[in-house]
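Annual report, structural modelling task.

Input specification for the magnesium ion complex:
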Amino acid sequence: MNDILPPEIHIWQTLEQSLRFICTRFGFEEIRTPVLEQTALFKRGVGEDTDIVEKEMYSFTDKGGENISLRPEGTASVVRSLVENSWFRANPVTKLYYIGPMYRYERPQKGRFRQFNQFGIELLGVQDSTADVEVIALMDMLLQMFKLENVELHLSSIGCDVCRPPYKKILIKELEKIKDQLPQDFLPRIQTNPQRVFDLKDENAKKLSENLPVLMDHLCPECANHFDGVKKGLTVLQIPFVIDPKIVRGLDYYTKTAFEFVSSDLGAQSTVCGGGRYDKLVEQFGGPATPAVGFGMGLERFVLILQEKGYNVPTNMEVSVVYDEAAKDTAFTLSHSLRAHGFKVDIDLQSKNIKNQLKRADKVGSLASIVIGSQELGSNTVMLKDMKAHDQKAIPADIKTVIEELNQILRRIKRD
Ligand code: ATP
Ligand code: MG
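The model returned the following structure:
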C-alpha cells in the first residue's frame, strides 16, 4: 500500500480532474459506495472460482459477527447499490462512474499493489453495441488527452449462456488431453472455469494454450452479430483495435464483449484497463433484467505511464509577499486579500530577513514578488518585482492597482 506525497500527488490530482471532466462530457455521473461490503456480495458477483475471491480478498468478521470484505473491485457494489435503491424503475438507462481505492491481497510488484485505485464506468440498460463503443470511446479519449500512444485496445467476445456451455465442453475435452502438462494448481479449474487456462502465466501453459479452441470461433449468431456491431462502431470512430481471442477477464460476470487496454510502457503489469459486458449481473442481484457494460482502470498504472513519459505538473506559486518587521501587518493583510481574489500567494511565516524571503520566492517559483519595507510603508506604496525579467517598480499600495499590475506580469509570463 502506497503513500502518495508531493510532487507525485500533483499528477494524481490532474488525472482525477481529467477523469471527472471527461465523464461529464460523456454524461456519466459519479456514484460513491462504501469500501466495506458483505463478503457474500463478491462471492456472488465476482465468482467463487476466481482468483480475486479465492485468494485475494481482505475478509474478516466484524464485531457484530458479520463476514465483510474490503472491496476488491467496483462493479458488484455499484449494481448492489442500484438494486437496493430501486434505481432502475425510474432510470432504465444509467451512466455512472467511480474513483476510489480497491484492495487485493496480491504479491506487490511494479504496477501491482494491495491497495490500488480504480476509475471505472458503468453503462446500464442498453443492449445495443453502441453502449460498448461508448465506454471504449471514453477510455480512448482519455488516452488521447494525455497523448498516450503506446496503448493498444485488445478486443474479444466471450459469448453468452447460449454459446459458452457447448464451447466449454469442447475446451474441457481438449484440456483433459494435455492435463499432465498443465500446472498442478490449475487442474481443479478444468471443470469449473476452463477458460482460465488462457490466463496462466506459466510459459509452457502459455505455449500449449495457443493450440486450444477459442470461444470467438464458437459464438452464437446473436453474439457474433453484437461483436460485429462493436467492431463497426469502433471503426466509424477511427478507434484502432486488435482482435485478441485469448482475453479472459478475471471476473465471472462478463458476457459478450471483453476488452483490455494494454500498454507497452509498463513491463509485466501491462493492462491499464479491463472491461466488458455483464448482461446478467443486475438480474442476478435481484434487479430487473438489465444489460450493462463497463470497465475498470488502474490509476497507479496510468500514473506510472505518465511518469515514464516524464509528465510533470508545474506547481508554482504566483506571488510572494516579502516584508520587514515594521510592515508585517500590512503584508499579511495584502496577502490575505490577494488570496481572496484568487492569486496563489506565498508569504514567509518565520520573519526571515528580506534577502532570505526573496530567495524563498525563487524557490517556490513565484513569478512576481511584492516587497513592503518601512520606506514603502511611509510612502503608501509597494515594490513590485518581476521575477523573470528581473526588473522592479514602485506602485501605489491600493489593492486595485496591485491586482492590475500583477495581472500584467502574470499574463505576460504565461503568454511567453
Ligand atoms: P491483472 O491481470 O493485472 O491482475 P485484473 O484482470 O486482475 O488485472 P481487473 O480486475 O480487470 O484487473 O481490474 C482493472 C484494472 O485495475 C487492471 O487493468 C489494472 O490496471 C488495475 N489493477 C488490478 N489489480 C491491481 C493491483 N493489484 N494493483 C494495481 N492495479 C491493479
Ligand atoms: Mg488480477
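Residues 250 surround magnesium ion (ligand 2) (CB under 6 Å).
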